Amino acid sequence: MGRLVMKFGGTSVANIDRIRNVAQHVKREVDAGHEVAVVVSAMSGKTNELVAWCTEVSPMHDAREYDAIVASGELVTAGLLAIALQTIGIQARSWQGWQIPIKTSDAHASARIDEIDGDKLIKRFKERKEVAVIAGFQGIHEPTGRVTTLGRGGSDTSAVAIAAAVKADRCDIYTDVDGVYTTDPRVVPKAQRMNKVAFEEMLELASQGAKVLQVRSVELGMTHNMPIFVRSSFDKPEDIDPHGTPPGTLICSEEEIMESHVVTGIAFSKDEAQISVRQIEDKPGVAASIFVPLAEANINVDMIVQNVSEDGKTTDLTFTVPATDYARAKETITAAKAKIGYARIDSATDVAKVSVIGSGMRSHAGVAAQAFAALSERQINIRAITTSEIKFSVLIDTAYTELAVRTLHTLYGLDKA
Amino acid sequence: MGRLVMKFGGTSVANIDRIRNVAQHVKREVDAGHEVAVVVSAMSGKTNELVAWCTEVSPMHDAREYDAIVASGELVTAGLLAIALQTIGIQARSWQGWQIPIKTSDAHASARIDEIDGDKLIKRFKERKEVAVIAGFQGIHEPTGRVTTLGRGGSDTSAVAIAAAVKADRCDIYTDVDGVYTTDPRVVPKAQRMNKVAFEEMLELASQGAKVLQVRSVELGMTHNMPIFVRSSFDKPEDIDPHGTPPGTLICSEEEIMESHVVTGIAFSKDEAQISVRQIEDKPGVAASIFVPLAEANINVDMIVQNVSEDGKTTDLTFTVPATDYARAKETITAAKAKIGYARIDSATDVAKVSVIGSGMRSHAGVAAQAFAALSERQINIRAITTSEIKFSVLIDTAYTELAVRTLHTLYGLDKA
């Protein structure tokens, strides 16, 4: 007997049949004796429709109204799932964000969860054996009493936050894939599903382009040490043994992973652009003169590479931005030329970032060196390199992305047997 | 300078262009110096879609979940209209039922409004010159904290209740017709729009089959003496003089109508079925033995006719029900035969009810008699008659409905010049 949060995304609740399927998944866990809270997204396509309407009325719309509008999709699925559960004999009721309440900041359209009081839900688990069906993605800013949303993919974050609030044993994220893979299986058919991955590794995988989970949900899982299990909502409920180990990937603390690989996975991102600022003065404040204007223009800078100056006078600085921000970034740097002081800008848009992630890197030397050698053997030119404790990334020409990913996947022994 | 509630139904907010048109209507009134609250329905078709999903999951669904689901449609239009208003320079914010709050009973799916505190809205009218855009059709049952809805067409009731709560000067109901007509213009092309109609008359017109307004909104208008102005949302906002008298029908107290006609309008309803219970004993309790089982079966009985017994021993009793309830009603009466004690049941489904309404009937004798003579001249057989203070109804064969309505419309001088 445990306590479980189950989260189902848009494709898992896309129509009434799929919602009935979700109800069967929930019933299985209830029948196994678990106390269950379910977090649901809007039916797939609904949120996009609502967002499109907001934009059609005005591209510069009030984020408070945007939130009131787009949060409505989840209310529908929460209610429908509650009815579907009742129909198969499971006590259930729906909860809107403000009813629990899920208290958030007032950063409308990308609010942060501040506090969830789980007592009301726990009381009803105990007294009524009632499943809580919770509208994901939303909350309330209590001082103003207005509805907030957590940003796209926010239902993952709702689920993990609720799991922490009700002191659940685990948070199951049901999705349209059956777990987290060592890399994108569409690029590397030999990619394998990981059984376990550490929070830190998953954070790097998620932010480096693996699109399974919202990054903030993993951060939250790490903070509260809440194990997150990524599994498929397409598995037939009747085929699953609730006491067995279903297929999926458990995201948990490093200590719970007995045997860790040096490299856990390979992530990549093709929508990158590179800007190199040549011959800037090597003096304090020059980096700020570049990145402050970019931040003010709301441009997200990803990789930053600056080498040690050769002559002690000038150096080059390279950074990457999302391809969609490329033109604006270049304009911003050009406009600030006098202030920054540089010789010229070199830039490229056909670049991709490939990242190798593994907490084993902490204790193994030479992991990156192996990669540089292997890529060089394939004649793949490395434009720039950055590293962190459990990851390194290389910037290469987009055309070589798949080749590089496959090469590294084999190199680190990640290919399926 | 006055205070105005403006209500727009589903066809008036069916898409973004229509919502922009609504914003122009609101701007006109704001520019004229009025304080404005707007009540909106869901985009046309949306509520039906949500109801269909509930029914698809389970025909016998939890009304609390049904309410949580179907109330979501209005949230979308309220938010979109608030954005549309802001875009044209009008201060505006959306309000969900629970935010005001609109406190209702817990009769989910057909809740009654208990109380609305208008102070918050009035304060913002004064301090911010802000238009309140309110999601119609919904409220909250405060003891349980759950969302309620007021039943189909409930946004009319929301609008009038809010008008009373904020002490508005008038409640304007924008709809897809330009007012209330003496009868259905599709049946009688000579039907005319009424400039003014008394609350009592409108109540009879509405409950007798004129579908312009929800009956409860008229009751509420009568209780609070809140003038309701029915007008078209298809009139071009720029063509309307906010200080003039736009086309439409004002529903108000009888005292404000200087020159009243004896007959105000003709209503009719074709979806009727008639059941006559023959030779029941003429003794106390026999009517109850018929109507209690029908009430328990949730069948809405409309006309009831019982004549004075001729022999003091037995009599006949006729009643009508909606055609959709005909089979169930007949079964119910058949099942209760032993208890009721009757000789036989006669019934008919092809019957229509035609009603003549006018507060002038109070002071004019012979109004009904004229009708009976005119119908007889046309060879239209009257199956049953009921009367009230300001109305009488006849039950006839459906085939003669249009002929009867046109005949009575001419008879009482309602035809357009």
3D architecture notes:
2 copies of one chain form a homodimer. The mean pLDDT of chain A is 92. Chain A is built from 13 helices and 18 strands. In chain A, the strands form 4 sheets. Chain A has an 8-stranded mixed beta sheet, with helices on both faces. A 6-stranded antiparallel beta sheet of chain A has the order 14-15-13-16-18-17. Chain A has a two-stranded antiparallel sheet with strand order 4-5. Chain A has 2 domains: 3-254, Carbamate kinase, CATH 3.40.1160.10; 265-411, VC0802-like (2-Layer Sandwich), CATH 3.30.2130.10. With 417 residues, chain A is an alpha/beta fold. The first copy, chain A, is globular.
- In the CATH hierarchy, what is the superfamily of the largest domain in chain A? Acetylglutamate kinase-like
Poorly predicted ranges of chain A: none
CATH-derived topology of the largest domain in chain A: Carbamate kinase
> Strands of the largest sheet of chain A, in order across it?
3-6-2-1-9-11-12-10
**Which second-level CATH architecture of the largest domain in chain A applies?**
3-Layer(aba) Sandwich
In the CATH scheme, the class of the largest domain in chain A would be Alpha Beta
Overall number of structural domains of chain A: 2
Keywords (chains A, B): Amino-acid biosynthesis, ATP-binding, Kinase, Lysine biosynthesis, Nucleotide-binding, Transferase
EC number (chains A, B): 2.7.2.4
Organism (chains A, B): Tardiphaga robiniae
GO biological process, one term (chains A, B): lysine biosynthetic process via diaminopimelate
